[in-house]
Amino acid sequence: MASASEKPTLSKVAASVNSYYFPVENIPRLSCHDPEAERLIKEEEPVILTDTDLVQSALHWSPDHLASHIGEGQFTVYSSRNKKFLYYDDKKFSKVPDFTPPTTRQEMTFQEFLRKVKAWKEGDPHMYLQQSLNDSVGPDVVQDFTHFNWKWIIGQQIKHKWGELTSNLLLAGMDGVITPVHYDEQQNFFAQVYGYKRFLLFDPAMFGCLYPYPVFHPHDRQSQVDFDNPDFERFPRLKELKGKEAILGPGDVLYLPVYWWHQVESVPGWGMTVSVNFWYKSGPTDKIVYPLKAHQKVAMMRNIEKMITEALSNPAEVPPMFRDMVLGRYT
């Protein structure tokens, strides 16, 4: 961990992250008042917004402060043996009978979670709290929440014709925890409150390079690849991967467009992190303009795969059907 006397700066934090084999370019850091920022959001391109004041009222939410003010409610905490927290959908377990969840889920108070984190020693599981902000939190935290810059974010929702706000997720992670690469089907403003997070982002056009699990699988929307141990023989198009990188500090807000792949890391060596995201349903598609955008193609491929999987009822029948449709006809 960084020395207590070392003052964190984004450049120092960025210099401490691990490099991967693929090239990355930096996500633009812009004022929310910059017309270029508005253009990027409109075009569904990621951008870091530096001055939204979206979570200004929560920037004192250190883990210790939350432990004192968030109340005694039960929160969802995941545990992992290897720092990686790969999402899974337990409603899809029946489709993969031998599936073993990579993490365990339990309910505990924030105070218990923080005690376990502070007592952590080598060999203990890593922990990641992920909880919707709802009535289970204490009144002080609720008051801070009501003072978020709702005027700005609601203005963005209206301007870009997004659907309803579906959830605000509070994320409190140990130093070094990673959410492996995946994509979401919602628009997301990701606000960093405490500590530093690193995002690796990939355009939806990288779909074929990231080898997502089938839609019936519990790891649907997650990539099968492991950046720490890339298997180029099994996943040859990994060599074509190109990404973008964002380092977020307190007060930064990342616009994370729908269908953009992303891996999220609590930067190792800089302590715990606290974040809040704002998930919105995507708005209705206006007039289709050709050629289709990459995220539209991903949505179309996903819907076709879901339709065929549901119609056949047996996941084992899906690959032969796709092969019969393509091999020898389009190859």
* Sequence stretches where pLDDT stays below 50 over 5 or more residues: none
User: What's the number of extended β-strand segments?
Assistant: 14
The average pLDDT value, as a whole number, equals 95
How many H/I helices? 9
Give the CA-CA distance, first to last residue: 52 Å
Which structural class do you get from the secondary structure elements? alpha+beta
The description of the largest β-sheet is: 9 strands, mixed
> What order do the SSEs take from the amino end to the carboxyl end, as H and E?
HEEHEHEEHEHHEEEEHEEEEHH
Gyration radius, to the nearest Å?
A: 20 Å
- Strand order in the sheet with the most strands: 2-3-12-9-14-7-6-4-5
Shape: globular
Strand content: 15-25%
Estimate percent helicity. Answer: 10-25%
Offer a concise description of the structure.
The protein is of the alpha+beta class and 331 residues long. 24% of the residues lie in helices and 24% in strands. The protein has helices at residues 10-15, 35-42, 63-69, 110-118, 139-146, 150-159, 207-210, 294-312, 318-326, and strands at 24-26, 29-30, 47-49, 75-80, 104-108, 126-132, 165-173, 178-182, 186-194, 197-202, 243-248, 253-256, 261-266, 273-281.
Description:
The chain is globular. The protein has nine helices and 14 strands. The strands form two sheets. Strands 2-3-12-9-14-7-6-4-5 form a nine-stranded mixed β-sheet. It has a five-stranded mixed β-sheet with strand order 1-11-10-13-8. The chain has 331 residues and is an alpha+beta fold. It has helices at residues 10-15, 35-42, 63-69, 110-118, 139-146, 150-159, 207-210, 294-312, 318-326, and strands at residues 24-26, 29-30, 47-49, 75-80, 104-108, 126-132, 165-173, 178-182, 186-194, 197-202, 243-248, 253-256, 261-266, 273-281.
